[in-house]
């Protein structure tokens, strides 16, 4: 096989996604992956045939070996996890020398352009976990990934953490830019590395209550042919947006990956023994035609209900403290600075505060 003829392309069509899931379910020991949140799937082709598959998704919330290698604290970690992606699946369909490392290298090049275009922010680092009982990570070593340690053998379960079957995993990382660790740890965060909207986990009670927020909105569709109630479509679109979905296709993909219980909580239509979710066309049709004023009022009610106390806004403001100076002292032979002047190596103190607009309470203040 001439590796120069191998090309990596995103799995874009519905037919290819079905084929991707089927191959993963049949030939990967972890089975078919879910597609939730920020996820990209790739297929490597050689002369028109699929020879390898790879999937990249959200990183592990906590991984001691990775976090120590990066060198960030827990506050920085939660703010910048979106700049890391996990190679959650890698499947080689046809054996050939150096094919695996070639495909990984091609995926890295694609991710540098595809991820910002799709999700609005760059990727700085890739991670993956290798089960030493099955593999040694030779493909990742050949592709210049760095082994940074082992996991402790735990995984997240309902109510906390449990022992993962199979024991600890090998942790490999691969920086996508030369200064990945510096950009992940420096303060403040570079504006180009920030992601757009806030994201949230959707609790069970929120799933059940979201459709009620849209009961008073007029349905712009004709009665004939309605398969999904309007409140259900709007609730799923709102839930997908809260979880970071951008665009109609991302909303539909998020909805398609909902579990049966989540679909039931959203009150999806029940037919043929299963709950059906609205398609991309239905979501687009509803959001384009629904009355924007009614939708805005409904979202404001949801925000007020989910805001806790009173949905109080927080004002951020900065002040320069007059006659407050900090920094290194001037050199011994330097002239004494005049009154009100700043000496060498010194600067005025600036205070940034967060104040509740209604209550007037200062929530935090930083120098």
Please outline the helices and strands.
Elements: E1 6-10, H1 14-27, E2 40-46, E3 49-57, H2 64-70, H3 74-80, E4 84-92, H4 99-119, E5 125-130, H5 138-142, E6 146-150, E7 154-157, E8 160-163, E9 170-175, H6 180-185, H7 204-209, H8 230-242, H9 248-256, H10 260-265, E10 269-271, E11 274-276, H11 280-289, H12 292-306, E12 314-327, E13 346-356, E14 362-366
Parallel strand pairs: 4-5
Antiparallel strand pairs: 1-2, 2-3, 3-4, 5-9, 6-9, 7-8, 10-11, 12-13, 13-14
Helix pairs in contact: 8-9, 8-11, 9-11
Plain-language structure description:
It is a single chain. The longest helix is centred in the first third of the chain and has 21 residues, at 99-119. Helix 8 (230-242) packs across helix 11. A hairpin with a 2-residue loop joins strand 10 and strand 11 (274-276). The chain is an alpha+beta fold. The strands form four sheets. A seven-stranded mixed β-sheet has the order 1-2-3-4-5-9-6, sandwiched between helices. Strands 12-13-14 form a three-stranded antiparallel β-sheet, with no helix packed on it. The protein is built from twelve helices and 14 strands.
């Amino acid at each position: 096989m001439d590796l120069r003829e191998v090309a990596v392309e995103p799995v874009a069509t519905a037919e290819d996604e079905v084929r991707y899931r089927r191959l993963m379910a049949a030939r990967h020991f972890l089975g078919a992956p879910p597609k939730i949140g920020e996820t990209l799937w790739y297929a490597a082709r050689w002369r028109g045939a699929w020879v390898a598959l790879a999937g990249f998704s959200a990183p592990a919330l906590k991984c001691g070996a990775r976090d120590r290698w990066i060198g960030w604290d827990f506050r920085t970690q939660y703010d910048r996890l979106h700049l890391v992606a996990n190679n959650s699946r890698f499947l080689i369909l046809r054996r050939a020398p150096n094919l695996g490392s070639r495909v990984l290298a091609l995926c890295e090049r694609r991710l540098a352009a595809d991820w910002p275009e799709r999700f609005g922010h760059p990727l700085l680092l890739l991670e993956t976990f290798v089960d030493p009982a099955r593999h040694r990570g030779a493909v990742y070593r050949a592709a210049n990934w760095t082994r940074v340690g082992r996991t402790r053998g735990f995984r997240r379960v309902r109510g906390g953490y449990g022992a993962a079957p199979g024991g600890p995993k090998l942790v490999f990382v691969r920086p996508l830019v030369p200064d990945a660790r510096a950009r992940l740890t420096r303060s403040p965060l570079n504006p180009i590395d920030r992601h757009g909207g806030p994201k949230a986990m959707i609790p069970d009670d929120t799933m059940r209550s979201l459709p009620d927020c849209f009961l008073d909105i007029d349905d712009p569709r004709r009665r004939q042919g309605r398969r999904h109630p309007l409140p259900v479509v709007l609730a799923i679109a709102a839930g997908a947006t809260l979880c970071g979905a951008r665009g109609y296709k991302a909303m539909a993909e998020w909805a398609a990956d909902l579990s049966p219980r989540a679909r039931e909580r959203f009150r999806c239509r029940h037919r043929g023994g299963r709950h059906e979710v609205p398609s991309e066309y239905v979501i687009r049709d509803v959001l384009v035609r629904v009355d924007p004023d009614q939708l805005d009022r409904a979202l404001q009610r949801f925000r007020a209900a989910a805001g806790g106390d009173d949905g109080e806004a927080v004002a951020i403001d900065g002040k320069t403290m007059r006659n407050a100076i900090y920094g290194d002292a001037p050199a011994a032979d330097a002239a004494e600075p005049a009154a009100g002047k700043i000496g060498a190596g010194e600067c005025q103190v600036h205070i940034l505060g967060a104040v509740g607009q209604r209550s007037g309470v200062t929530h935090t203040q930083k120098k």
